[in-house]
Amino acid sequence: MAMRSTEGEAFVMSARLMAISELVADLPLSRVMLANDARFPWLMLIPRRANMEELFDLSAAEQGMLMREITAVSRMLKELTKADKINVEAIGNATPQLHVHVVARYKTDSQWPMGVQWGDPQPYTEEKRQSFLSELRAGLRKLGL
Amino acid sequence: MAMRSTEGEAFVMSARLMAISELVADLPLSRVMLANDARFPWLMLIPRRANMEELFDLSAAEQGMLMREITAVSRMLKELTKADKINVEAIGNATPQLHVHVVARYKTDSQWPMGVQWGDPQPYTEEKRQSFLSELRAGLRKLGL
Fold it and tell me: Considering only CB atoms, which chain B residues are within 8 Å of A53?
């Protein structure tokens, strides 16, 4: 059975997602988080709605907003990182709260051409993390979403 | 640089995708293929537009259509297969032509909770493949897309 948000019910971000990532910014629908994993420039978009698990749990209007946010963020991330490919994934097997991975991939990265597998992150240095967060925030502001 | 379809340029499906899957049906935007891999009920949606690689290569209208097709197909597949979770993935590292995996996952499947990795398919028996194709085609017709 689809889980639908009760209007007014508060969005609460999964503790599991918060533990592995840091807030970049909020878009109209989604919270954008940066995974603390220097192996790949790795963002997550988390629709700020309660009780969402599958893409189809969102309303039709929210689905459209999410697609616009995914594509705008993907294009920005690819330009910023000069990546070879953007991978977009809504998995959620281990962490049910709906979240969409947007990952910049390089032909030279350690898991190319396979999909990234989580579980063995390599944390950023504090300096690199802060400078990447600044670049991402500037890139998101320019999107004008 | 984004690759955009030249109007009138013919959609040609990647030989690599054709080799591992079979036509289920065409939706308004996407060709729906069934991966010949009995480990997971695994569909691929391939927008019938030439020269697409990233989701953001599609026009805004096509992005909206694709999201509607992804969510409708995901809901149908989850109901049909009684899956625990639907995984939606646009990867395309090995096969650049834009294609979206829609995979029915079970807590009991061989790769749960990780994302599925291709490369070791277990083909369906001919009988199972034909009966699943029939069920999928009936399910897609009912979507009324």
Answer: 85
Task: Report the alpha-carbon distance of residue B38 to residue A45 in Å, rounded.
Answer: 31
pTM of the entire structure? 0.94
Is any Cβ of chain A less than 8 angstroms from the Cβ of B3? no
Flag whether the ipTM exceeds 0.90: yes
- Chain A residue numbers with beta carbons less than 8 Å from the beta carbon of B61 are none
Q: For A118-131, how does the pLDDT look when each residue is reduced to its tens digit (9 = 90+)? A: 778 999 999 999 99
Identify the residue among B65, B71, B105, B143 best suited for mutation to test binding to A, counting A beta carbons within 10 A and taking the highest. B71
A103, A42 contact by CB (below 8 A): yes
Residues in chain B closer than 8 A to A88 (CB atoms): 55, 89-90
pLDDT tens for each residue of B40-57:
999 999 999 999 999 999
Gap between the Cα atoms of B26 and B7, Å rounded: 19
Sequence-distant (≥ 6) Cβ neighbours of residue A7 within 8 angstroms? none
d(CA B34, CA A78) in angstroms, rounded, equals 30
Determine the distance from the C-alpha atom of residue A126 to the mean position of all C-alpha atoms in its chain, rounded to a whole number.
20
Contact call for A68 and B60, based on CB within 8 A:
yes
List the 112-131 stretch of A: residues with Cβ below 8 A of B: 112-115, 117
The total of other beta-carbon atoms located within 10 Å of residue A53's CB is 17
DSSP-assigned states of every residue in B78-89: HHHHT-SEEEEE
The mean pLDDT of A39-55, rounded to a whole number, is 97
Residue B2 pLDDT grade (very low, low, confident, very high; cuts 50, 70, 90):
very low
Which member of A70, A88, A93 has the closest CB to residue B85? Answer: A93
A16 reaches B (C-beta below 8 A) = no
The predicted model gives B94-122 an average pLDDT of 93
